[in-house]
Request: fold
Amino acid sequence: MADIEIHYAKGTASLVIWFGDPDSEVDCHHTDSDVIIMLDESGKPLGIEVLDFHPGDGPLRVSLDQVDTLAPRVRASA
Reply:
């Protein structure tokens, strides 16, 4: 199993979870629930960023099911 990296930035209230190689990110998809899904060249999810995240708000539930139906994709900026 691959390593998972978890980063929380209290100042910006963002939580980033990488379960793939961050250097492979070429696309991202903004969902309607303050979640950004980072994608590799083939559209495979590499990680998620949760905006306006506050620990203690309860369980975090994210569905990656919609990733297969992304169109058009948004280019990530470096």
About this structure: Confidence is low (pLDDT under 50) at residues 69-78.
